[in-house]
Amino acid sequence: MKSQPHEVFRQYLEAQGLKLTKQRTEILDYLLRARDHATPERIHADLRAKDPMLGRATVFRTLLLLEKAGFASKILFSDGSHGYEHKFARPHHDHMICVDCREVIEFSNATIERLQDQISRRFQFTPLWHRHEIFGRCRKCGPKPAQGVK
Amino acid sequence: MKSQPHEVFRQYLEAQGLKLTKQRTEILDYLLRARDHATPERIHADLRAKDPMLGRATVFRTLLLLEKAGFASKILFSDGSHGYEHKFARPHHDHMICVDCREVIEFSNATIERLQDQISRRFQFTPLWHRHEIFGRCRKCGPKPAQGVK
DNA sequence: ATCGTTGCAAACGGTTTGCAATTCG
DNA sequence: CGAATTGCAAACCGTTTGCAACGAT
Asked: pLDDT grade, residue B58 (50/70/90)?
């Protein structure tokens, strides 16, 4: 019952007449493991540790491929930079993002999902996907701006 | 009981020892009127029609100022580009965005707002603001991808 | 008059592209 | 083998910065 991202990706590539390369596998793996800030630059830097020959362009080209294939999507971080996150995750997971330490807490709520569908229907809007992010401060950073630090 | 963006902005600038200039007013006005794709480039191009001397740098600097002041925030569009939206709007307004024609429908739902607070509390998370966007197809564009047109 | 602000053009930094060498199937 | 892919470096933007002229208080 587990979905197998690699297998799905391989099938997609085959169907498109594209090739499964070491680099594409490395980058997909990176996104699957990444829990945060997966910017093109960080992906490139981190993967170079194991594969020094990996080129920047390949990272960008692969991310674009994954995005077009629907396996990843671009996300905007609260600091204004952006990166990618894979879309093999379960149902819909939304984010609570700490503006101090940037911790990302995932949440999902069936009632909210249902209300979204109701609202969409009311406007005769056909929902395809959504993004729901709550920005604030996590337990550790407290309700008030960090003191002393920064 | 109406908030007056211009007045609030003026007071903010005064408090910071900054000046209210023609350019800053123009750019704030633009954001207040803009209903969509307010990218730096588009803002610059559109405002140049009335003020040919307006420089790119001024647009970027003012957007940064508005963002830091908390009057605007950067948003990521579904095509990957990004722009700004002002934050003077009433309570919270969220968006339904048509992936075909890019129409933006605003919605707000008290129950969803309340659930967000509940979820946040459960994680001892202090919410400051949120972004909730539903992507799909509007009434006009129908549930299926546009045919013929593109 | 004084300092912040502006427009310009050059500098930057992230992203894309052309191309010869390489690799997957 | 042949088509797709890669790495590199150059080309491309969108964004930032230094600076002299300008403008708001």
From this structure: very high
Q: Within chain A, which residue ranges are assigned CATH 1.10.10.10?
A: 1-89
Read off the amino acid at residue B131: R
Please tell me the distance from the alpha carbon of residue A66 to that of residue A58, in angstroms, as a whole number: 12
Contact A105, B123 (CB under 8 A): yes
Instruction: State whether residue B121 is helix, strand or coil.
Output: helix
| Residues A117, A136: Cα–Cα separation, whole Å | 26
Residue nearest to nucleotide C14 (CA to C1'): A41
Closest residue to A128, CB basis, from B99, B123, B126: B99
pLDDT value of residue B144: 53
Q: Do B134 and A134 touch (CB under 8 A)?
A: no
State, as a whole number of angstroms, the distance between the CA of B35 and the C1' of C2: 39
Mean pLDDT calculated for residue range B115-135: 86
How many Å apart are CA B64 and CA B20, to the nearest integer? Answer: 15
Chain A residues in contact with B75 by the CB 8 A cut-off are 76
Per the confidence metrics, is the pTM higher than 0.85?
Answer: no
Q: What is the pLDDT of residue A146?
A: 42
- Asked if A136's CB is within 8 angstroms of B129's CB, the reply is yes
**Percent of chain B whose predicted confidence (pLDDT) is above 70:** 85
Question: Which residue is it, tokens 């191009």?
Answer: B45
Question: Which protein residue has its CA closest to C1' of D6?
Answer: A58
Distance CA B25, CA B71 (A): 13
CATH 3.30.1490.190 boundaries in chain B: 91-150
Which residues of chain B are within 8 Å of residue A136 when distances are taken between CB atoms?
120, 125-129
Q: What is the pLDDT of residues A3-51, one digit of tens each?
A: 478 999 999 999 999 999 999 999 999 999 987 789 999 999 999 999 9
Pick the CATH number of A91-150 from 3.30.1490.190, 3.10.50.40, 2.40.40.20, 3.40.50.300: 3.30.1490.190
pLDDT in the model for residue A145: 47
